[in-house]
Amino acid sequence: MSDTERKLHRLDILLLVALALAVFLPGQLGLPPIDRDESRYAVATSQMLASGDFIDIRFQDQPRHLQPAGIYWLQAIAVSALSAAEAREIWAYRVPSVLGAAMSVLLTASLAAQLFGRRAGLISGVLIATCLLLSVEARMAKIDATMLAVVLAAQYSLVLLYLNRTEKPARVAFLFWMAIGLGLMLKGPIPTMVSVLTVVGLVAWDRNVAWLSRLHAEWGVPLALAIVLPWIIAIIIRTEGAFLEDAIGHSLLGKVTTGQQAHGAPPGYHLLAFNLAFWPASLFAVLAVPHVWRSRAEPAYRFLIAWTVPTWIVFELVATKLPHYTLPTYPAIAILAAGALVSGAARLGAGRSRSVGVAYLALWMLLAVGLAAAPTAFAIHVDQKIDPIAVPTSILALAAAGYAALLVLRNDMLRAVGSAAVGAVVLWAGTFGGVLPRLEGLWMSPRIAAAASLALRCDNPVLATTPYHEPSLVFLHGSDRTRLATTPEEAAETLAANRDCGVAVVGQRERERFGRRISELGLSTELVDRIDGRNYSNGRSLSLEILRPVETSDSTSAKRDARDRRTARSESMDRPHPGAQRRRDTTW
What we know:
By secondary structure, this protein is an alpha/beta fold.
């Protein structure tokens, strides 16, 4: 294969960029901040911009010592260039994720072209761009889509050095270590782990370490550390070592040993989640497995297997599990599938092999039916209505998926990829861009923030809320103006302390305790609005009352009496005393 065949053409790049934008842009403006991780990242970034403290990242008054500050800096750059922190426009915070996802598509395609040719590059780019998980991550102002681009940059450099396909290994090594340093600045050791495990797997498989000299670790490691160490030193000094204790001892090691935040699951979870998270590309990945196994001796396949398997095993063994943890392996899987597709080996075989393939195709179609029906079903369940966008979205997506399944049965795989991709674009664009932003019952925080603003015309209304504690409300109403009360009594006390410019959000179960305490404080409240909906973070239906303070009748009477007494005293002082008047008369 010539060097020209290993590169994407300009038209290929334009097509992939257009596809990425078609998949990732719908919903960026319409979707409100999504709980809970996205909103925590956005609040922390907005506070960082407001305070000017770019070292110690915080969510309200709590330190956010989960990972280094890289993603917050990227979001801050995007917000400063495109919006304003006080405007609270969540789309600006999502810009790094959109760009990271689009860059991941191009890097996946470029890496696949380097290994299997230009056509494989286009196919792998389509597969990764249309998969469900990356489509979700591109719409969230968090770290994973951006991190994926950095991982791919490191892996692209690594494969060039491993296969010795560069005339300037020192320059490629420089790019590799730069990507490692940026990964450390984004999410600590996680991005680096992917490259380290790939190297360990290749060395163990090949029993050859000679190629490692091309990495130039003697100056590459210091280069990577130079990117992250200044901030690490600054945060250690600022927090007196608390950052390392929280980030490594609690966040990292805690996820390894225990299922944090109710996200524990047994090994095999990621394998099951893959069928949905990588849809629709999961079908072609599974059909490619026999060919990948047969081709494992080839260096290109060996590199991709060493990239995928060790990292996947680590995440299966980690106690805390979320679907996006294995995202760094998805580009490698897309490239493996593309390699099998261009070779004509990813197909339904004969006999037992065909039976297994048809069985998985049936599972894939079952997932397609569920995903296609989801927009319509969700609109009915949440808002009790049939959404006019949801119905055609569901029909078109299901039709495209069904046609793709028919093409697979005919072993017309390349056209099946195209049909499945069309179905995915329609489904993701219609769901994220059309259906979800219109579901009022799903987005409680924007409605609460709007009701609070209408209830009070003061400059900085303080909002006390119990038990609704979603970070999206903190982002929308303002970090310094939102109090997440742990008890109804605390919410009442906060409202009493801000009676001239305060509002409370109280759930039905908390109403009695809140009312009792507010009465003890000499206040009464009036109902401004009632917000009914569903908190999708935990699945609970909620009915929240928006309350503002009013003086009780007793306190009002007492104030009126006091005012009358003050007025009477004032009038008495102004009116001449009768004896004085008589004295003046006598003198006259």
